[in-house]
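Hey, resending since the last one bounced:
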Amino acid sequence: MARNASFLILLFLFFTPLFGQTNPKEDTPLVDAPSKTTIPRDYRGIELGSKPEVVKEQLRLDGWFYYRGEADVTLLEGTQASLIDAEGTLFLTRGLFQFEENGLSTIVLELNPETVDWYTVFTTLSERYGEPTEMNPQRAWWEDEQTRVAIERPLTVKYLDLNVYASSQEKTSNRQAWREKAREEFLNEF
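The structure tokens again:
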């Protein structure tokens, strides 16, 4: 009889925590609700918005890049646009750092397919930032209000300052409109 009573007490103690909750809405959730993850604005300390001199110095000191200096800097079509093209080592084949109006707007990292694969990078980004904001067979990306991080095929990771991107899209649209008008004027000269 004492044995049965002990057994019943143990059963009671075991099942009480499982069935003791009367209103789960009032209780604290057992699992934290997912919070919106902030997308990083930097890669290895090279942060979007940085001045070219800062990025050059960081590339000089970083062992993942073989930065040779000014020979790696190129002017782009826009008057305020430039690009640093630095050879990578081991996991990176190349790093491209694009500046708009003297601030780093885009980081493009071409990864080495011999040392890392698309699926592993995609899985890592998904674990860190959750489900992609958007995905198609060629790319997946995660973004917040300021930044987009994308992985593109064959094997490229991009960091993009969305504010600068929106501004440059407007400038590109204006430039295209100007070119169309100039083209029309040119053809009218014949």
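The longest strand covers residues 92-100.

Sorry for the duplicate.
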